[in-house]
Amino acid sequence: MVEAQKIAAFCTQCRSRCGCVAVVEGGRLLRVDPLPDHPTGQALCPKGRAAPELVYHPERVMRPLRRTQPKGAADPGWKPVSWDEALAEIATRLSAIRATHGAEQVAFSVTTPSGSHISDSISWIERFIRAYGSPNTIYGTEICNWHKDYASRFTYGHDIGTPDFANTDCVVLWGNNPAATWLARQVEIQKGLKRGARMIVVDPRPTALAKRATQWLRVRPGTDQAVALGLANLLVSSGRFDQDFVAAWTNASLLVRADTGRFLRESDLRAAGRSDILYSHAGEGGGLLPLDRSGKETEGTPVLRWHGTIETLSGPVLCHTALELFARAAAEYPPERVADVSGIEPGDLAKAADIIAGAKSVAYYAWNGVGQSVTATQTDRAISILYALTGSYGREGGNVPGGAAPFVDISGQDLLSAAQRDKALGLAERPLGPGLQGWVTARDVYKAVLTKAPYPLRALVSFGTNLLVSQPDTEMARKALSALEFHVHADFFINATACYADIILPAATSWEREGLRTGFDGSLEGLRHVQLRPPVVAPVGEARSDTDIVMGLAAGLGLGDRMFDLDADRGHDAALARTGLTVGMLRASPAGVRVDGTAQLDGQSLAHDGHPRGYPTPTGKIEIYSERLMLSGYRPIPALDVGDLSSAEAGYPLRLGSAKSVAYCHSQHRNIGSLRRLVPDPIVEMSPEDAAARSVSHGDWVRISTRSGDAVARAAIVPGLASGAVFGQHGWWIEGGEGTPYDRSHPLAANLNSAIGTDRADPVSGSIPLRCSWCQVAKISFEPPSV
């Protein structure tokens, strides 16, 4: 009898990246167990435990496949081909398009590294795309991580940071339910609660954490910005914020000209003045105080709130401090108005403000609940400024930016020329948006395919995506996918989108390939952990890792010199170079190693060129007022137009959002037996009041309708859910059981995203209202056939 091997690993089924032990016998993966000594290894969710079902699923793509029938045919006529044939054909087609038309006429589509196995290869895929020269990658960042990772930089200069939940005095979860999406974070929150931390949850749904919260703010979908401004108003108007931190490390005291919206500069006051010296004011009886943006402070104490007239070269100009302008914007949201807009009672808002004001430290996280809206960027701005007022950013018990070691990014940002970067679809309309990184929206790609403007989009290469289901504009997507000259799709299965491809490549799961993880960001301690997970079993069939796939394509396109000479070890060693670690060292310690460093607390205070480092923003401070946004035509202070938030669309009285299930991640896993048994059908959560008004009972089939489309689901009556709000589940594309409304003849009838409109979008990022549309729900007559 062969003794089972136990191989230290980590799971990649979601952002948690839980440490685990893969149990292998006779070369076959038997199960996956927790690895308690790992910083994320205390528990595993059902997705992680279902790993063997995924690896050995009978529907896995086993060999490269080529289409032999026209697109639109009932049977694509998939024909197995060799890897050499497939890679040669792809390289030839991509090379010809680049040579004749330009690399921008090939788009790429990459699934989320936060919730899929592609996290092991994402840097390599992005490096290949940039080496090839395309500025057009559908990455979904505008509906996933834009606000917390990039919009936050308009305020902090950094991303949202890693929340130190285990050591905080106040946990704030805003549109984020880690119990369903990030198990390692859930563990850290439990540590903090056991220490006595209080918790605020801002969420329309009565999640398990909302029920445990010290204060649950049951917000109406899409109105989070009003709540953030309302809380900030209570803190600023009462003076209950960290005034020392705000004075030292934000641009609260800087003066803003009322005529131009720009900061007051020395060049405004004298002909030979410098434009990089800005001004604060000393208040009554005082005068102007210059601030050199190198970080050099001058004598005098600036006031945080002031307005008055300053004599400039162009005459007297009214000026306000940045905090004065923000305070006035926040004052537009007294508790009573917040209640009208968001549904949160004034007393509940006041209690939440009291908790924040009384906490020595605050750690928070906000995710899709606030990011998937048409106000995503400014909502993040409002939340980030509110958080800056606590003084916790970058401190123990707060959110700490950066990692524990200086890892090198090998995703190849430097490989894409400025000229190519400027060709990103949608960048002209959203000049500060994701297009700056070469990340474009799916609908911009569809439009370029169908209208050939601003230039034709001829080919698409996809890594694990399912655009028909994970994005709206389903019918436009069908037309665009059918019209492409060439389409390649790499994946585990032939999903709804892969059916339109010309070539399908079999991708290996993370259990079948090596994977490097430089820090586990569930906690500050986890950031110190570095691990090179070995392949625990051999690839099934002829599956290859995504890294090997792009290496093969790079070889065919002559890009080897830009891909570390096609040597993954060289690339990984480059990523580790500043830490003193090597791939060889990590292979000798498969459970991972801990780096000597730690996430830097109070990093802005560290000396740099003889002055405090500050923040990587234009003013070197956390930016309450963003001149950068103003100069691009956006509001420098978050302010909300509540017109379309408070009035329902005619015929569509319910606010439609969506929520994730612990059993699934996006459009994955619904063909996994054990997970499907947990959630066999799509559901839509409704309050008892809304269900009763429509004669809907628990388990009834209903139709969710919007101006843009509809989808079917089973009703789930949820006591405590905010009245007027309903929550569906996106990602359904596998047919239901015999006789369901989304059976084999209509598998996409349950596709919630087909009901989401994209006519309105966040003007900075392009985010769309996946969590805040208007809908109607009606019971449908449906009788499954008798057995």
From TrEMBL:
Similarity comment: Belongs to the prokaryotic molybdopterin-containing oxidoreductase family.
Species: Reyranella aquatilis
Protein name: Molybdopterin-dependent oxidoreductase
Pfam families with a match to the protein in the record: Molybdop_Fe4S4, Molybdopterin, Molydop_binding
SUPFAM superfamilies: ADC-like, Formate dehydrogenase/DMSO reductase, domains 1-3
Keyword Glycoprotein: no
Positions of the 4Fe-4S Mo/W bis-MGD-type domain: 4-59
Record's keyword terms, sorted: Iron, Iron-sulfur, Metal-binding
